Amino acid sequence: MTVPVPAGLTEFIVSVAMVSWLAHGILSVNADIVSVPVSEGDSVTLLTHIKKKQDDRIRWYSLNTCIAQITRDQSRTCETVQCKESFRDRLKLDHQTGSLTITNITNTDSGLYELKINANRNTDTFNVSVHGVSAAERDTMKRKSVKEGESVTLDPGVIKRPIDPVRWYVNITLIAEITEDQSKICEDVQCEERFRDRLKLDNQTGSLTITDTRTTDSGDYTLKISRSRNHYTVTSIKSITVSVTGSGLSSAAVAGIVVVVGVVVAAAAVIYFCRRKTRNDEGSPHDRRGSFAMTVCMLD
């Protein structure tokens, strides 16, 4: 016995099936997209998680344009005028893994980046979102002024995880670092002679404190903090210019001024006493007495 199908039921079932298929397709595509949030000025590395073979062909695309590729033993980046104008030598390819690094990232770098390996149709897609930094925030982070003898703390301004490595440099010289639960400060002679146990690292935040500052501590300090995720690594780079101004005259200079002032006051007192004594003697009937008193003052 054949059960009649109600009118419109077949169309309804087909519609539901189509919606389910489309939803599954959309969700599958979105599931393959890796969200990569970064701040302006950071560097980001998009990871491939492969060890490249000699005959592998790796290509990176942005806006359907190939921006970097590795073919056999040759790697190339930005071969078009548009790419060169957009990135300006800020793309780096790891020849061993094919991972792509964008340095000093800007707002215009936001968008989708696709990785294709060989002729495989499957691609890894990264959605890079660049967040701008206000001018006021940049100025606050870039300048620190302090008087000699005071302490100054250089704050990373980012949230650090315990596994995130932190490195501090002054004029390109490494002076302090945190790797997992270990911290190191001034491991070379030049750094030790310059700071002499005056550097303090906060393992929780990664901030660097310089105690008992001196004018020789002035300079450019650079922080590099790396945050690794499953599919990408973001390296935040902060540059801070520290200016240490003198607190005033040195103790030796102050002592010298005190001695000079003391001599001047003593000389003035002697001159005043002699002049007063001479005036008193001028009224005496004996002129020789005044001449004698003046001579005595001059000898004194």
TrEMBL record:
Keywords: Membrane, Transmembrane, Transmembrane helix
Keyword Transmembrane helix: yes
The Immunoglobulin domain, residue ranges: 33-131, 141-245
One Pfam entry name: V-set
Stretch forming the signal peptide: none
Name of the protein this chain belongs to: Uncharacterized protein LOC113040392
Cross-referenced InterPro entries: Ig-like_dom_sf, Ig-like_fold, Ig_sub, Ig_V-set
SMART domains: IG
Membrane-spanning residues: 252-274
SUPFAM superfamilies to which the protein is assigned, alphabetical: Immunoglobulin
